[in-house]
Fold each of these.
Amino acid sequence: MTPITEVEGRRVALSNLEKVLYPATGFTKGELLHYYATTSGALLPHLRDRPVSFLRYPDGPDGQVFFTKNVPPGTPEWVTTAEVPRAEGPTRMVLVQDLASLMWAANLVTEFHTPQWVTGAPEEADRLVFDLDPGAPATVVHCCEVALWLRERLAADGIEAYAKTSGAKGLHLLAAVRGASSERASEYAKGVAVAAERALPRLVVHRMTRSLRPGKVFVDWSQNAARKTTAAPYTLRARAEPTVSAPVTWAELAECREAGQLVFRAQDMGARLQDYGDLMSPLLAGTHAAELP
């Protein structure tokens, strides 16, 4: 029998709590749900009003992993949804607006991915994002060097960037923007990525071509497209261990000498939030949003 828990007045079914999702560490589904519940204060503001894509891994990272964009079958009627335009026609997607809907979604065992716009304005970017992906033997240490260069380049245009680990191998840089279409944001981001490759030719590549990427950092600017999504801050990832896409300080990037320094797991995040709060909270205020040049 599936346990029913009341969350903020909503009845939420939470199943298979003892199921081990991450065999390398013994991390269970119950621990995953506990993680999302205890980090909800930081996570929810980054999900709110954004149609969420779920990268689901119900049997752990070694099982089937698949994207769910449409409203999943069996979604409770109290979960907020929104119509989202697509090239093939409009569809309905989930909005994770509160703790109850977060816990319902977390019970599906998921990474949370969001676009760089909010519902109601699907072609208007309010975020700029760069995904820094190292090609072996490059590591996140090399991503840090690139991130620091990008920070200065963006600052020259009046854009303040914030960094987080991807929760996998690399880094994400985000900035709040206003008054730009997704197409314009993509165009600007591509220009910055090209400039990074010119400035750091031995370290950076701006094209996705696999043969160009070994030993370099791919500066992926394409996630600014309206149809693309990026792993949300604080989401768990479907990796060998329960790693988190964790916001980090610029000092941590400047001081990084080994890849392990920037690996954060679910059990690390309580202390980080206590010490730092939400390092990406300025993205939410709107006061730090910049116009693209």
Amino acid sequence: MRRIRYHRHGGPEVLTLEETPSPVPEAGQVLIRAEAIGANFVDTQLRRGMAQTELYSRPLPRPLTGDVVGTVEAVGPNTDTGLIGQRVATASEDAFCDLILADARWLVPVPDGLDVGTASALPMVAPVALGVLRAGRLARGETVLVHSAAGAIGHLAVQLAKVLGAGTVLATASTAAKLDFARTHGADIGIDYTEDDWPEQVRTAAPGGVDVVLDAAGGEIMRRSLDVLAPYGRLVAYGAASGEFGSIPVTDLFALRSVTGFSLLAAHAADAERAGKDIAELTEYATQGLLRTAVHARLPLTETREVHRLLESRAQLGRILVAP
């Protein structure tokens, strides 16, 4: 089978298509024939040697992570044979392959008729979007600010904020096209964060302050976001697309503001039952048409380098899929 690896850090050119024997599932595992793979921005940072923290440390050579939609072809010993032939989705640390090994416990059954883009969101990006809103303790009627609102996670967070009862959803992005995209997915107000006065624009739109900020950018965006929080407002950090996690002085929190973080891996480890219920909830939203994933492009596995160039250009609207 074919797979993608990189053996050194660098630009997209380090990504290599390799041939390798097909894997064999062990007990508790299934083998999935991939139909589509959702690409993740964080892999561009890992590929360049960035984001090498305790949380994201990955030794070389490295595969690419992703959300796989496909059909179960085989199961390991002592694993339910009834899974064979089922269309499923799963998150994988080694996703860019024709055939993927996956833990049977975390398979997401794909409902009949659900589009492949939305199916690809169910294992990871949609649970992250829901998780950051829950970490922010969003209450009905509150104001939410979603940074990177045109991204794979951001445009889902906009939709879910509305589903969960947010009163006003403010979206930030870097271009007019991205802001229009965010509004078509439920944002009430769009703000260009490349403009230096974007915090003032937020305060004009939400004079009383923002109750919840969802931030995957880190760095200066995160630091300036504190200033737009309402009293008792909450900022949820869940990434560092800027390349900098950033830091906040404790004294900045004395103004009745709080900062928390979210990691899906940590959420799974802390409460696997809750994580499973979240996926079931998201699947129901998807089948009801309340949650949909926009697919910006769908490219073959042989063009994975181009996938990473697109991700790094920050031009995509929604998700990029790879088709083996």
Amino acid sequence: MEKLSFRRKAVFISGGASGIGMETAKKMLERGWVVGSYDIVPTEWHRGLDLDEGQLVTGHLDVRSFADWERALRDFTAHTDGELDAFFNNAGVIVDGRIAQQDPDRIQWLSDINCVGVSYGAKACHPYLKKTKGSVMVSMSSASAIYGQPEISTYSASKFYVKGLTEALSLEWARDGIRVHDLAPLWAKTKVAEVNARSIRTLGVRLEASDVADVAQRVLADPSFYDTLRVHHGVSVTDKVLKALSDFSPDIVRRLVTKILVG
């Protein structure tokens, strides 16, 4: 490995061991960034890759623990001279089934990761991002935050939480010069899609994790002027159309369309 001789831009990715986090990490490495891939399970996909020394930093992160967030960020930024240019707030899980049959412990588990964990990540990364001009945070929302989805109700609700947090922080952090965005794709071929939800049967799983990562890396590293103005970013034509129709439709129409598609 060739040792890095100058400071490259740095991105911290939660849930980087697999799926969309892994694919985004790979694309950011291709761009020459220093990447932190942190997850509750070990990051192993990098074995055999030809990387510069210090370009990829991996570590453990339980997003449910704020102390773990602080430790992970100290660890990563120790390799980047204390700098952090971007944060991909990606880690998330899913619980399926009608809410009457969902395990209360699983509901708590999902909420702790998808809601509390995302908030902890934002809070922990803020002081690092604030120090860097032009910094950015991108969080993983979902097209299920367009209108609440049956059979994945708690997951869908958690993505509304991410959407709301993103909108609030896009205003709150503007004075700090931090761009704030989220991604809201339809189903992609990841572990999240390995559930029994009617929307999978009606809409299909047409996206690859790399398709979502393409949008993530663009918003993180190379946004157009229009990208910088948009808070919520779709991935496929279908989710963009559904989002646009939803934005200009009354609730009764949105509910009817959702019922026809997945209800």
Amino acid sequence: MTFYQFAVHMIKFIFHLFNGKPQISGLENLPEDQPLIIASTHRSMTDPFFLADVIYPKEVAFMAKDSLFKQKWLAKLLAKGNVFPVNREKPSTTTIKHAVNVLTKENLNLGIFPSGSRHTTEIKSGTAFIQKLSKATIVPVAIQPPIGFWQFITRKRAKIAFGQPIPFDSTQKYDKEMLANVDAQIAEQFDLLDKQLDPEYVYVPKPKK
């Protein structure tokens, strides 16, 4: 058993014990025969853990903010769990290249949060550009997670919906306009999936401290 597999089993046990099984829809939208860019809303620190749980045994490598890698022991632990650092304000060429290699050489799914942060819902450029380089399919995901420790332990169940795949279109030129169009499709699906899960749901980002 790899460290990643062990970690996911531990996550499943802890999350199901304290929060119960999440409500999931649209798993059939995950193509079976290719690594995917799993583009998710980001509203809680638990989001990547829920994703790793529900798509298992598929494995996913996540981008995470580079400040988490300042401690050597934590950086080593995250690396064993297929997590790699990114400067959220200005992703480096090295980070983009690594993200593409995750999909094309390591044959893993790439987990990415297009907003870049829990403190905004604005879609940043980057996801579509990685699709351009990797030619991978994007699957948008909306997560309505428990917010904060109290909601988690009082079993406010997470709701997760996987949207329609956005395949790479080899007939199109992925110029600035096309990349913006892909980002717009992701944002549109986030809205549709949220309404599908709960028509009354509204996420209000907390200001960054």
